[in-house]
Amino acid sequence: MSLARPARCLFCSLSRTATPGTRVPRRQFHPTPAPLTNRKPKFPNVKSPENSTRSALKADDFKSYTEEEKAHLAKEYSAAQMEAIKAGEASIDPKDLSEQSIRRTDPYRFKYLDDFSVIEPGIDRNVRAPESNSDYNFKLKSEDQFIEDFGRFFAESNEDIKPADFVRFAESLRLTEGKEENELNPHSALVPDLFGPGQTIDEPRVEERKSAAEKGEKERSLEAEELTDALKSLLLATGYTERQVRELRTKTLVSHSVVNQTRLGKVRRAYRLSVAGNGNGLLGIGEACPRYENRTIFGDVTGKVGAVELQLMHRPPGFGLRTQHLIYEMCRAAGIHDLAARVNRSRNKMNTVKAAYEALMSQRDPEEVARARGKKIVDVRKVYYAGKV
Amino acid sequence: MSLVNLAHVCSHLNNATKARLSLTSIPNSNLHLKLCNALQNSGYISSVVRGGPTPPPAHPILGYPAANDEVEGIEPVTLDNVASRRLWLGLKYWRNESVLGKVRMVSKPTRRVTIDVEGLRRVVRGEDSGYVGGLRSPGESLFLSTDRGILEARECVEKKLGGLVLCRVL
């Protein structure tokens, strides 16, 4: 409180001041200081009219070509192109141009050019499916209601009823009360089929497969003569046919050069760690990898090689392979489609592959568990829900 | 209810299965006996017999000590011998692997973990619930101490019981 304040100020405060905002705040007894009214904001405000997306251009600014300009253009363009230009001119309204063909300059503009009128799968968010047709209060019609329906049919139809009329009536006869869509197009908990019958994600389409088969036959007849020694020994060792070997999906996961230091000097060699699999439960040559429902693994498993510790976790159908690239390639080769993995501690490539292999092979078969414990174990998903959960 | 002793039992069972023992013994207590009975009901161990410091004689046909052995009989527990009693467990192996995989405590002596039916339902379905991870592998089970004895998690869900989570067996 300022007692030193001159008395005239008290009278001044009653009269109107020349400036609307006083520098000295009036609430002097208040414990917290009031903000100064004429204080400048830290950051300049962005005012909307300055930033409006509306362009200064008007519809009148877009004028069609004059005869003179057209004559100039005709020198450059052919007659067909001129026609196209004319059609384009006619099809676009200058009003639309003034409203839509503007570059935004506001801070929230997009930093790229794109056509936002189109929904691109994979980039844009999915368009939601319409709400279901389900009607939870539907009831089966009683006998009396059916009799009523029949009565109405006979009453409304002409005297000579043809068999076709009966068929039409039977087809259009509804069996339930409630929403019509509920009966005609009921909700299904089943995941809609992505592929046609006999078609999988790995296999090429039927036409492609046919052409590939034709191509393959030609190649095979050529290659039949040139069986390499390595291939021959592999066929002998594994007992596979040549075709089975050729269908193996292989991928080199780790490759680097290694050096052996001898008294003769450094002997360089290449190290390769590759994975092979037929994409259908075979990981490595002759090693069957257990799979649950031919898509994921039995339970969560862990593997440890060196300092690499990893966990592989089973996942529901359609989850995909959300793993790092090495484990992804191994799962592709083995034909596992739904899996999550976590690699802890070290992430050495070679040891990661080995640990993942160890983990995949350490799966416990529920049948074996059941026999070991002398208990009955039932796959609830398969037995009770027919794979629908 | 000493969880310290229970933790010792769990690690002892792990060590015994790794050493491929067919018969092992643990200190006698009511908690241990109930847990071992639950393990036996779930098929993880073959037999539970309360005996003295030396292993009880094997059943003539089964080959391991059995609690219902009529020939040998079981020495009754008296005030004199109760301190020397131990629980003798027959361990099981199948296809060169022990049936009792790894036994791990969930509650610790310093942190007791309880769970209700709702949480247990999630756990049995394979989801995590609080401090208790889901049962996500085939043949994995969780043992709880409830007011109707020591039960497996799925039994608890069936009977709508919650309780103290003791240990997890894989």
TrEMBL record, chain A:
A Pfam match is Ribosomal_S5
For the Small ribosomal subunit protein uS5 C-terminal domain, which residue ranges apply?
A: 303-373
Q: Which GO terms describe its molecular function?
A: RNA binding; structural constituent of ribosome
Q: Return the Gene3D superfamilies for the record.
A: 3.30.160.20, 3.30.230.10
Question: What InterPro entries does the record tag this protein with?
Answer: Ribosomal_Su5_D2-typ_SF (IPR020568), Ribosomal_uS5 (IPR000851), Ribosomal_uS5_C (IPR005324), Ribosomal_uS5_N (IPR013810), Ribsml_uS5_D2-typ_fold_subgr (IPR014721)
Q: Would the keyword Transcription turn up in this protein's UniProt record?
A: no
Question: Could you name the Gene Ontology cellular component terms for this entry?
Answer: ribonucleoprotein complex; ribosome
Name recorded for this polypeptide: 37S ribosomal protein S5
Organismal lineage: Eukaryota, Fungi, Dikarya, Ascomycota, Pezizomycotina
TrEMBL record, chain B:
GO biological-process terms attached to the record: translation
Specify whether Hydrolase is a keyword of the entry: no
| GO cellular component term of the entry, any | ribonucleoprotein complex
Subcellular location(s): the record lists:
Mitochondrion
User: GO terms for molecular function, please?
Assistant: structural constituent of ribosome
Give me the segments passing through the membrane. none
Give the main localization category. mitochondrion
Q: Which domain of life is it from?
A: Eukaryota
Q: Which UniProt keywords apply?
A: Mitochondrion, Ribonucleoprotein, Ribosomal protein
InterPro entries reported for this sequence: Ribosomal_uS8, Ribosomal_uS8_sf
Ribonucleoprotein recorded as keyword: yes
- SUPFAM superfamilies the UniProt entry points to: Ribosomal protein S8 (SSF56047)
Q: What does this protein do?
A: Component of the mitochondrial ribosome (mitoribosome), a dedicated translation machinery responsible for the synthesis of mitochondrial genome-encoded proteins, including at least some of the essential transmembrane subunits of the mitochondrial respiratory chain. The mitoribosomes are attached to the mitochondrial inner membrane and translation products are cotranslationally integrated into the membrane.
Q: Which PANTHER family match?
A: 40S RIBOSOMAL PROTEIN S15A (PTHR11758)
Q: Which family is this sequence assigned to?
A: Belongs to the universal ribosomal protein uS8 family.
The name this protein goes by in its record: Small ribosomal subunit protein uS8m
Q: Which organism is it from?
A: Penicillium cosmopolitanum
